[in-house]
Design goal:
The structure is a single chain. The chain has one helix spanning about 5-20; strands at about 55-60, 65-75, 75-80, 85-90, 95-100, 105-115, 125-130, 135-140. It is mainly β and about 140 residues long. The chain has one domain (about 5-140). The chain is globular. About 25% of the residues are buried.
């Protein structure tokens, strides 16, 4: 098995483990045959009513339209990269993943803007995947 295959399987395992830890049922993951959702911004649920949030602006490489590439927050669709960029609100502990199962080529994504309250080491600025649903990172809020 090559390194790419190993890393892909390791990331898929991480998604499944995170789904178990967050109580996300496998059936809640979107099926690849569903029509694209036009939602461009979505908010994940806060842990409690007083939880702080952060805003992210994400984009596909060169702002290319990827109508069937979806950002998943805690296993739920938060929007697609149909317009090349996506703005979302996230909360501490959120798991971000990208579902690019509709594409059989390597796709690259970047974090263009991120609230200062997000700990950057848990969410890489660049991310790529190929024909899979893969974990991008976790949201960890800084203690200010």
């Amino acid at each position: 098995m090559d390194v790419y295959g190993f890393v892909s399987r390791l990331l898929l395992l991480a998604v499944l483990v995170a789904a178990c830890l967050f109580g996300i049922e496998r059936s809640s993951l979107p099926a690849p045959s569903e029509p694209p959702q036009p939602v461009l911004a979505a908010a994940a649920r806060p842990i409690d009513g007083e939880a702080g949030f952060a805003n992210l602006t994400l984009s596909s490489e060169d702002g290319v339209s990827l109508e069937q590439a979806y950002l998943l927050i805690n296993g739920e669709r938060a929007g697609s990269f149909a317009h090349g960029t996506l703005q979302v609100r996230v909360y501490d502990g959120d798991l971000l993943a990208v579902d690019c199962r509709a594409y059989d080529r390597e796709l690259c994504f970047t974090v263009d803007e991120m609230s200062a309250s997000v700990e950057e080491r848990y969410l890489p600025r660049r991310f790529s995947c190929r024909g899979e649903a893969a974990v991008w990172g976790f949201i960890v809020m800084r203690q200010l």
